[in-house]
Each structure stands twice: as structure tokens, then as C-alpha cells.
Amino acid sequence: MPEDAANATIADLAKALNARLDGIVAGMAELVVREIEFYRSTVVSPKELQEALRRSVDFLLTHLADPGLASVDVSAPHANGRKRALQGAPLPEVLRVYRLSFAYFWSQLLAEAQDFGESATRALLMSATRVWALSDIYSSALTDSYREAVAERMVETDRRRSALVAALLDGQAAGGDTGWELARTLGFPYQGRFVVLMAEAAVAAESPLPGLEARLRALDVASAWRAQSGHEIAVLSLARKQPPATVVAAVRDCATGRVGVSPVYHQLDHTESALRYAQVALESLTPGVAEVRQLDDTPLTELVMSNLDTTRRAVNRVLGGLLSLPEGERTTLLATARAWLKAHGSAAEAAQVLYCHENTVRYRIRRLEEYLRGPLDDPTIIAELALALNAVGTFPTLLEQRSLRQPAGPRPVVQQVQAPGTRGAAAVRTEGV
User: What is the pTM of this model?
Assistant: First the structure.
């Protein structure tokens, strides 16, 4: 059969199908609803489904009736793909609708050709390639528009989430309905177990924590991120039974630069304060080294963080002379002080931690007392020392501070001695120990 004759026959078949278009669309819709569960929901109404199916049939019939059209109009599949994406319909289900409806359309076209006679059936077989090509064009246009819409929606969602995280970090969601609304939008509980990460990018334009999101999902940890110049900040919502140490270990495995981690906090509108902890933890690490640090949530830590200038002055007043010692001696005395305090003043227990003799600990404590404002049997002096050690632990750069007002050596010791040529009268002599 000549091609022109075959095309004319196919055009006649298209016109015949067009005459009973309503019945064909109704049959397609019934098949789709029966076979695909998603379309039995209320997301896509029966009327909307039939309208979409009618447009797809119109697309095929138009191009079959006039094979000489200069271009193929894909506006219908493009609009349908976009709409389904915005409705949240799964792409496999959307494409399955088209496969089912096209198979139904082909069966109707074949039945019509058989009614026309043998020559119409041969013409349809000759034109099968063109029919299937139209089907492929339609499904490709639908898929492309669906994916474009999904990509746009993801960008919009990321921007929205980033804005919400910014609101949390800036303290704009301070309780009330606003905090609950942010929590619901981010998919977080309002009250739960949270931490804030601040990660420094070792290389510009590269993630400082590559692969962490996948690790967090495996740990059932939800996350929301905000990118800043040189940093990434994340708010993590921990699973109820997830140990924070497991999450910190995952962060450590992925870190390419410095990462500060806040203590665990329990209400989402406390995120602004938690960010401060994460920032301080990051800044306390050595620049250029991939390290992770989580600050402890203690009253002393909070006091140290409240005012850095005041903290610096307090450290210099408590440890001023000690800070001027050579690094090795200073480090030894500070380590001994920490171990002694942690052992509640027991030289024996501190010695076990420091791997030395307990008499060595006692000697170092006496040496340390020379640089303090009093002996370590004074509760006030112990409190000052604990505060200073917590401060330099939180801000190691304070160890580099020098106070010109503080003496470089040990504190002076005042002794009562009898001066020559006096009878019981006391004179004062000051010695450095």
C-alpha cells in the first residue's frame, strides 16, 4: 500500500475515534483507577484525571489525522508532567498511567481498523512506527517537565529550609507558635534532643562534611543546613535513643576541617545559644587541622563564654605568673591541676592518671600554689582555679595571653623574722619562693 494511501486511512481512523472520544477517555480512566492505587486517592480527582487523559488522546489523534504537521505540540504532556510533580505523584506511577492509557488507545485504534477492513489493518501496521514515536515523544516531554518541576521545588524547599534555619540561629523563633511552626516545617519536634554543628570549609566551594547527610540518615538523625561564606551550619535532631557520641563520631569521620559541636539541648528555640557553643568550640581548635570538638554544658562553661574580655582578665588574675612559664613546665602544672581537681584533691588518684608517683603530684601542687592567690586548702582558691582551667580549656588561646600587671614569678611569701638587735620586735621580710 502506498504511503499516502496509508496516511489517509490512518487519518480516517483518527476521525472515527474522535467521534467516540468521551467513551474512550472514560474507559481509560476506569482502567487507571482500577490498576493504580495512587489515583484512587483524592490527590487527583476523577474529573482532573479524565481531562488529562483527554489531552493525551487529543495529542495522538491530532498528529495521526494530520501527519504533515511541521512540529509536534508537546504543551499538553509538559503541563501534565509539571502538575503531577507539584501534586507529589510518583513519577513511575505517572508514566504507568500513560503506558496503560496508550495500550488502551492502541487496542481501540486496532479494533477500529479491523472494522474498516483488511486494508485499514495493513495501513495501521505500516504506520505503527509513527504511532509509537508519538507515544515516545509524549512520555519524554512529560518526564522532562516532571523532573524540571521537581528540581525547582527542591531548590525552593532548600531555600525555605535555609531561611527557617537562619531564623532559628538568629533567635527569631523564640517560643510560642512561631517556634512550633518552624519545627513542623523542618520536620523536627519542638522538644527533643538537638545539637548544632559549625563546620569550617577547608577548601572554598567544597563541603566541609562530605557524606555526612547520608551517615546521619542511617543513624535516624534529621538535619537542616545553612551555608555561609567559609562555613556550613547544621541543626541536628537526634533520635530518642541515639547516643550523641555516635553522632559526633560520624561527624569526625567526615570532617575535612575544624568542626564545633554544641552540647545537646532540648528545645528548638534554644538554637541561638547552642550556635554560640558550636562557634566557640570551633574557634578553640587549631587552624588548618581537621578536628571536632563538643563543649560540655556546665555552669562554668556558660560563665566562661558569657564575656571573653572578663574571662581573659580573670584568667590572668588567677594564673598570671603561671602563664609566663616555659610551655613544658606550664603544661605539666596545668595537667596536674586538672587531674588533682578531678580526683577531688587525692594525690594518689591523680598520680594514677598522670602515671607518676603521688609525691610528685604533691610537689607539683605545692609548686602550683606558688602562682595562685592562696593555698589549695582554701575553697575560694579551688573555685578560682577550676574556673580558670575551664576557661583555658574552652579558649586555649588564653594560654597565649600575657598580663603586664601580673608578676612573672611566684607570689611573694611574707614571713615574720626577728631583726638583729631587737627584743621580740618583729620585722617583715619578703622572699620569693
Answer: 0.54
